[in-house]
Hints:
With 212 residues, this protein is an alpha+beta fold. It has 2 domains: 2-78, Glutaredoxin (3-Layer(aba) Sandwich); 85-193, Glutathione S-transferase Yfyf (Class Pi), Chain A, domain 2, CATH 1.20.1050. 51% of the residues lie in helices and 8% in strands. It has a 4-stranded mixed beta sheet. Helix 1 (10-22) packs parallel to helix 3. The protein is globular and about 45 Å long. It starts with a strand and ends in a 12-residue tail after the last helix. Glutathione is lined by residues 9, 11, 33, 38, 50-53, 66-68.
Amino acid sequence: MIDLYTWTTPNGRKLSILLEELGIDYEAHAVNISEGEQKSPEFLEISPTGKIPAIRVRATGQTVMESGAIMLWLAEREKRFLGAPDDKASVLEWLMWQMSAQGPALGRIHQFAKYGNPLGEPAETKAREQGARAYADLDARLADRDFVSGSGRGVYTIADMAIWPWVSRYEWHETDLHEYPNVLEWYRRLAEWPAVQRGYHSPHFVNDVPMP
Length: 212
Ligand SMILES: N[C@@H](CCC(=O)N[C@@H](CS)C(=O)NCC(=O)O)C(=O)O
């Protein structure tokens, strides 16, 4: 049994989607980051930086924080969603791209969308440029393949599961996915999958999965 500490955000949904895809027993615990619950002493013992998502393996007490680390750790433990051995390099490439490029760029846009722009226009312009670039880079990657990693048409891996929840916030980014037809097709295909749907609605329902 895995305890998942999470909230209804893209980083949280990465893990609920993976756990649903793995089909292993887990219990999702809501950590309301709007109410500051991530700063509670109990949660800081699990996630020392006070960020969701984090997990605890109930049988051993092992804890893991940081969404990319948790995804890799679980995928390696379960020997799933990493593709074939030769696919591993491209899984790591696109997982790291998500963590270092797409997530931070779109996360800054979320901040502006929700809290305004105290930093002034150049910061917002830069964030939006970087967000658009992330969409364009993903669109180019998906031009001749079904998934971001693996050879040939690609294979469904943790990299897709990490990237997809951030794309699901395309409305927050004021992005018309029809401008990125390869992302649109990939996004819609995964959005129909039952495990992705279930993971999206963990730890609780907020809205239907957006469908462009
Ligand atoms: N690099 C971290 C980022 C996690 C993150 O930013 N979590 C946000 C919610 S999506 C959070 O917990 N924010 C609350 C806070 O920073 O206090 C990861 O990928 O897990």
